[in-house]
User: What shape does this take?
Amino acid sequence: MSNFVVSARKYRPQTFESVVGQEAITTTLKNAIKNDHLAQAFLFFGSRGVGKTSTARILAKTLNCFDLQENIEPCNNCESCTSFNEGHSFNILELDAASNNSVDDIRSLIDQVRIAPQVGNHKIFIIDEVHMLSQSAFNAFLKTLEEPPEHAVFILATTEKHKILPTILSRCQIFDFHRIQIADIVEHLKKIAKTEGIKVDEKALHVIGQKADGALRDALSIFDQIVSFSNNNVSYEAVLQNLNVLDYDYYFKITDFALEGNIPENLLIYNEILINGFDGAQFVLGLAEHLRNLLVCKDPKTLDLLDIPNELKEKYSAQSQNTHQEFILTGLDLLKATESGFKPSKNKRLHIELALMKFSSIQSTLQNKGVLS
Assistant: This one.
């Protein structure tokens, strides 16, 4: 039996080019290396799973590479790159501040800073979750960061920049890593699926991207989970079942019935949703998102704001043409009030059912007011 390696590790970026969704940052770092405008301290800030530590490792490897490529990428073959890839480089040290956050840990690091690199020109210190350092540890680190030896480069990574002392921040070049776009996640998963010989449905990958909430590492973990569940066939249905996500079709049907003023059918659909184990709050949020998408489809200029497969865009556009803007805006106001009142409500099912009845009555109300002909 072969040893399985999770996708997040197997496909961890090894070059700047392979970092997903952070082109502005990787381009800046490559240009800094190329033009010899390199800072001695960097702070990589962003939410989990967006490539902070991976980029820090690539930068560290690139700085000490003996055979730097023309596109400013590490060669991955020289002595320095090989020792780093195998995990025994003496010039690149990593510290997890979550578990090594005391003054003694920082003093030990400072002792390492004084020692010049044995191979290469730089000694690089990567400190992950740097916001976890204690106040006294920060103070001990400050002097070294203020006047580091010429060979030392510090790369700090954090998810909580506001917890870091301003005096530390002022001595760093700060790079904000943004959440990975769904389109970038989908394209990355497609490449992995092709490499691994896995059959995928693009709609399924979009759902995974939405569920990952901008974290590529989360998307890869979900992808592995679905691959195991579906036996290498990542279908839309498999993703919905495994991740407990409501099918888009429910919202299209509810909206169509609401436009017809068909209250009984919408109550039956909601009953089916409850039987399938979905939460009422989740349903309200999903329906509000559906109405938002319909509103976006009203103008071709805003169509690109829909981060969904093209097949679904056509479906949204078709329903949007049959839905008056006033209906959508009134529905959004109703759902906002429904969401606010859901938690304190004692009869949560009735709370949603009343909202659905009102939602299904919007069209006739607007007609009676003369808003709709």
Remarks:
- The chain has a mean pLDDT of 87.
- The first strand starts at residue 41 and ends at 46.
- Strands lie at 41-46, 92-96, 123-128, 152-158, 173-177, 199-200, 233-234.
